[in-house]
């Protein structure tokens, strides 16, 4: 069974952590369903669920299960910086079970990015 990740920041092609995605297969650009806000933390973005949120754009990848521990480490899951959760994407990817990394810390004082980062 295929596993998928939606990335919206430093793991995207051309960004500083894209090399961690070498073991994944790029599928397409993609957008979340509305319900998310994206903030600028400085060197990276923060995605959070929010009832008045919008659709956020990023990239969809197919990943092998052995890549998850690496991505979890890169995203600071053990440090409670991000948590990996299921995200609903807009069509044509709305039938896939996709995971992403949601920010766990305070967004107070952070600048909103709109629908994409940077």
Structural features, described:
The chain is about 5% helix and about 35% strand. It has about 120 residues and is mostly beta strands. It has one domain (about 5-110): Roll (Hypothetical upf0131 protein ytfp). A 5-stranded mixed β-sheet has the order 2-5-1-7-6, with no helix packed on it. A hairpin with a 4-residue loop joins strand 3 and strand 4.
Secondary structure blueprint with pairings:
Blueprint: E1 3-7, E2 25-31, E3 36-40, E4 45-49, E5 57-63, H1 68-74, E6 82-87, E7 98-103, E8 111-112
Parallel strand pairs: 1-7
Antiparallel strand pairs: 1-5, 2-5, 3-4, 3-8, 6-7
Structure in a nutshell:
The chain has a single domain, classed as Roll (Hypothetical upf0131 protein ytfp). It contains one helix and eight strands, in the order βββββαβββ. The chain has one helix at 68-74; strands at 3-7, 25-31, 36-40, 45-49, 57-63, 82-87, 98-103, 111-112.
User: Could you give the order of the helices and strands?
Assistant: EEEEEHEEE
Distance between the termini: 33 Å
Give average pLDDT, whole number.
Answer: 97
SS-derived structural category: mainly beta
Number of strands: 8
- Briefly note the CATH topology name: Hypothetical upf0131 protein ytfp
Percent of residues in beta strands? 35-45%
Cα-atom Rg, whole angstroms?
A: 13 Å
In helices, the fraction of residues equals under 10%
CATH first level: Alpha Beta
What is the 3D shape? Answer: globular
- CATH superfamily annotation: Gamma-glutamyl cyclotransferase-like
The stretches of 5 or more residues where confidence is low (pLDDT under 50) are none
Output the number of helix runs. Answer: 1
The CATH architecture can be named as Roll
Total individual domains: 1
Strand line-up across the major sheet:
2-5-1-7-6
Biggest sheet layout: 5 strands, mixed
């Amino acid at each position: 069974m295929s596993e998928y990740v939606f990335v919206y920041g430093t793991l995207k092609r051309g960004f500083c952590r894209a090399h961690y995605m070498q073991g994944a297969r790029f599928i397409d650009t993609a957008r979340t369903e509305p319900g998310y806000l994206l903030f600028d933390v400085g060197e990276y973005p923060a995605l959070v669920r929010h009832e008045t949120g919008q659709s956020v754009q990023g990239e969809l990848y197919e990943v092998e299960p052995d890549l998850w521990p690496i991505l979890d480490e890169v995203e600071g899951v053990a440090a409670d910086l991000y948590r990996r959760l299921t995200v609903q994407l807009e069509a044509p990817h709305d039938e896939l079970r996709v995971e992403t990394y949601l920010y766990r810390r305070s967004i107070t004082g952070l600048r909103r990015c709109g629908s994409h980062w940077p």
